[in-house]
Each structure stands twice: as C-alpha cells, then as structure tokens.
C-alpha cells in the first residue's frame, strides 16, 4: 500500500467525503490444477478447497505483502476469499474487530441486514501449537440475496490469514461449519512459534486525554536518522514477536476515541502510548515515546508517529507531547514523512530520509 493510499484511507475515517484511494490489484500468475506458493510466508494455496474452486488471485502492491485468492462454490452459491497480508501489528483480536466493523459498514450495500442476535463469535485452534489463537465470526443475513456471511482470522508468524465466506444458500450454522472445513482443507503448516491466545477486546476503563500537542521543530538529517533507527529497532522487535511472549497475549483495550472506520487500542490500558487501526487491511499508526529523541536526550518528552502499511514504514515529525487520537488523524493527511523504510521480508531495511 502506498503512503497516499494509506493516508487517504485513514483520512477518510475522519472526513467521510474524502474518496479512499485503493491500490489497483495486480494479477498473480496462478496455474490451474496447481497450488500457488506465496514465497514470503511459505504458504501454498490450492486451486480447490473444500469444494470451492480458485479463481482470481491478486497482489495489492508489487511485493506480495498483501495478496488475495478468490474462490467460488456454485452448488451453494457461495464465495470465499483468502487474504494473506502483513498488518502493522499482526494481532488477531485487533484485526478481527476491524474486519467485523468492515462487515457492518458494507452490510446495507452488499449483504442486507445483519442479525446481531444470531451473531456467532468463537475462538478455535488453527494448529496444535497455537490453541485458541484464531477467531471466527458468522452472521445470519436477511433482506437481500445473502443468507449468511462470516470470517476467520489467524496469525502465522508475521502474517495474518483472513478467510471470508458469503453465501446465498447456506444458513449461518452451515456457513460456520464450512469456514472450519475450508480452513482445515487449506492444510497450512503450523507456524514455527506459537500464536497468542485470541480474545474479545473490551473498552478501556478510562479515556486518553484530549489535550492538543505541538510538533517538534524539524531536525536535521542526522537527528531524523537517529530517530528512525531507534524507532525502527523498537518496531522490528514488535514485528518479530508481535503479540506474545510464548503464547501469552498482549491485552489491548479499545479507547473511547474509536470510530466506525478506525479503532484506537491501548496495550494494557496504557496512557503513554496507543495505536490506530484503520479500515481492515492492516494499516496501523503507532504513537508512543520517541525512542530516538530520548536516546539523544533522556529528558525528552517527544512522541513519535509511525505509519505501518503492509510493505513500508513511514516516520513523521514527532510531537512535543502525546497527541490525542483525533489530532493525529486530523493532521496526518497534510503531514509529510521524514523517512521511509521497507517492511518487505528479505529486503534490505535501508532508511530513506525525506527532507
């Protein structure tokens, strides 16, 4: 995802009139009768899964950091899509909540009326070494041609796997069962490290302060590089062990500043840092103490703002104190990055300073 696409995606959450710019998908070179190997994750996607036949395969970029595979089952008038992507933080609980929100935002136009009372939410174990680490949500639907819709999200190392199934024939109970059998027949290998326990995110006990923060005066190239290196190291550690120590989850709560198009999450209810998950495609804003500024000056109260897309990391001019989530969203659209760094697996992580 490009910076402009990510910024417009996030800006659209605050300014609904702003048209979101979606990356034009590129076709992946699949072959009929053969699985497609997604080299970066090591996951192979068969051409037929649980009675679903694979169709279009797309790369929403150029690095296969965000890919999808469409499937269809004509006998039950059902479609399925498998997504493999790098989120800013590959936390199943966070992105299941965002995917659920996306279903609600598009239901009236694409599906019909969601039966909230009939909603099914469940944890399940995608692999033996990762018990209860994935989430599954299913809704009965009425009012249009759709009878049920649902999803599964699981973590595989630094990658997220999302499966969406929508049907015009299956009941919610049948679709729920089909999600499970579809995932099982993908026959994906277990990740090397255990994925963390998934959970339903709860509201935070309090709200973040809404005081407006001032930007730090722009630094020179050396200062920007120091900040970029220090903050990248912090994020690199989070990327390699993103959600757990062993299999214990990092518990996030939902801040009251959350809206339909984006959510604000705080690790352990922290009042010193937060993240904003925009849409349901992985774009993440990380706001926290600026590691670079505090390395140069331990008394610094600066806060960094970092945008993580599926394939890149963008740094921005830090704030003198912690900005409120709404201020962060309001000002990002007009902000220019100070540095750019690749997140593509296997690619050199050189930092490009933007002056």
Question: Explain this structure to me?
Answer:
By secondary structure, the protein is of the alpha+beta class. It has two domains: 22-186, Protein Transport Mog1p, Chain A; 202-353, no CATH class. It is 23% helix and 32% strand. It contains six helices and 23 strands. Strands 1, 4, 5, 6, 7, 8, 9, 10, 11 and 12 form a ten-stranded antiparallel sheet that branches. Strand 4 and strand 5 form a beta hairpin. Helix 1 packs across helix 6. The longest helix is centred in the middle third of the chain and has 20 residues, at 221-240. It is globular and about 65 Å long. The model is unreliable at 13-22 (pLDDT under 50).
Provide tags for this entry:
6 helices, 355 residues, 10-stranded antiparallel β-sheet, Protein Transport Mog1p, Chain A
Question: What is the fold's blueprint, element by element?
Answer:
Layout: H1 3-14, E1 26-27, E2 36-38, E3 43-45, E4 48-49, E5 52-59, E6 66-73, E7 78-85, H2 92-110, E8 113-114, E9 120-124, E10 134-142, E11 148-156, E12 159-167, H3 172-186, E13 202-203, H4 221-240, E14 244-245, E15 248-249, E16 252-254, E17 262-267, E18 274-278, E19 284-289, H5 291-296, E20 303-308, E21 312-316, H6 325-332, E22 337-342, E23 351-353
Parallel strand pairs: 13-16
Antiparallel strand pairs: 1-5, 2-3, 4-5, 5-6, 6-7, 7-12, 8-10, 9-10, 10-11, 11-12, 14-15, 16-17, 17-18, 18-19, 19-20, 20-21, 21-22, 22-23
């Amino acid at each position: 995802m490009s910076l402009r696409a990510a910024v417009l995606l996030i800006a659209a959450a605050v300014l609904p009139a702003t048209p979101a710019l979606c990356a034009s998908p590129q076709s992946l070179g699949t072959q009929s009768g053969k699985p497609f190997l997604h080299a970066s994750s090591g996951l192979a996607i068969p051409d037929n899964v649980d009675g679903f036949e694979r169709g279009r395969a797309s790369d929403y970029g150029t690095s296969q950091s965000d890919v999808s595979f469409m499937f269809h089952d004509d006998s039950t008038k059902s479609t399925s899509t498998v997504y493999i992507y790098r989120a800013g933080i590959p936390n199943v609980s966070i992105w299941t909540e965002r995917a659920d929100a996306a279903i609600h935002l598009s239901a009236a136009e694409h599906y019909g009326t969601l039966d909230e009372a009939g909603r099914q939410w469940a944890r399940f174990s995608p692999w033996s070494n990762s018990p209860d680490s994935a989430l599954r949500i299913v809704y009965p639907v009425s009012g249009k041609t759709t009878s049920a819709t649902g999803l599964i999200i699981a973590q595989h190392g630094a990658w997220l796997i999302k499966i969406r199934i929508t049907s015009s024939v299956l009941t919610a109970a049948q679709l729920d069962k089909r999600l499970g059998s579809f995932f099982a027949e993908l026959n994906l290998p277990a990740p090397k490290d255990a994925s963390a326990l998934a959970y339903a995110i709860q509201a935070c006990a309090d709200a973040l302060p809404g005081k407006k923060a001032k930007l730090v005066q722009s630094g020179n190239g050396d200062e920007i590089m120091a900040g970029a290196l220090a903050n990248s190291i912090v994020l690199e550690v989070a990327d390699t062990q993103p959600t757990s120590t062993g299999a214990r989850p990092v518990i996030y709560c939902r801040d009251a500043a959350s809206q339909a198009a984006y959510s604000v999450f705080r690790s352990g209810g922290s009042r010193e840092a937060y993240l904003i998950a925009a849409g349901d495609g992985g774009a993440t804003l990380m706001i926290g103490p600026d590691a670079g500024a505090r390395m140069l000056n331990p008394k610094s109260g600066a806060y960094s703002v970092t945008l993580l897309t599926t394939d890149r990391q963008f740094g921005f001019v830090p704030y003198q104190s912690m900005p409120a989530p709404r201020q962060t969203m309001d000002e990002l659209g007009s902000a220019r990055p100070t540095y750019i760094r690749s997140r593509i697996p296997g690619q050199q992580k050189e930092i490009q300073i933007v002056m």
